[in-house]
Write a structure and sequence with these properties.
By secondary structure, this protein is α+β, with helices and mostly antiparallel strands. It has 2 domains: 6-50, Ribonuclease HI, Chain A (3-Layer(aba) Sandwich); 72-206, 2-Layer Sandwich (Nucleotidyltransferase, domain 5), CATH 3.30.420. Helix content is 32%, strand content 28%. It contains 6 helices and 9 strands; from the N terminus they run ββαβαββββαβααβα. Strands 7-6-5-8-9 form a 5-stranded mixed beta sheet. A 4-stranded antiparallel beta sheet has the order 2-1-3-4, sandwiched between helices. Its cofactor is Mg(2+). Residues 73-203 form the RNase H type-1 domain. One of its GO terms (molecular function) is RNA-DNA hybrid ribonuclease activity.
Length: 207
Amino acid sequence: MTKQKYYGVKVGRKVGVYKTWSECQKQVIGYPGALFKSFLSELEAREYINGVTAAMSTTVTINANDKHTGNHYDIYVDGSYDNSKKKYSWGFAVYQGSEVIHTASGIGENAEATATRNVAGELEATMKAVLWAEMQDIDSITIHHDYIGISEWATGKWKTNNTTTQGYACFIRPYLTWVSFNKVAGHTGIPGNELADKLAGEVLKQA
């Protein structure tokens, strides 16, 4: 079972302790010089804000206290965008070996991210997939993606120049100790990539 994390925002739009990453990122993404860390207890988060050293703290870029004890999984991600609806969608398919063991898809809900069109769906699919894997206590995963920004923003090779990519980079970097990436060619008959594309496309048609 995934442990509750507490995010201490020391410098940001509103200093405080937040129980979810989505709440935390609203205070720090795009804020110059933002300082924040994740903790395993609310007390440690408050001590951090107040300048007290917390021995068990983990920075937002390290997940040293997380333990993943399952097998390796391959996850294919994709996104889609409908210009007439001004909506984007995401989808991912989880493989263990050659077997599909889980699929998920949905409509993006970040209005600001819509400006990045299908890229928003690609990024959200990746984040949803990582969160799913974390809940399963999996040892490691490989994200297979056809948009190169998925890996380039995660590793810092590409500069994040808007709140959507900044939010993705801040989210994904703590997981890089057990998440790896593999760029695949889109629409070339790769089963996992085709399935993720289909999942994202179908849910968008129904929106």
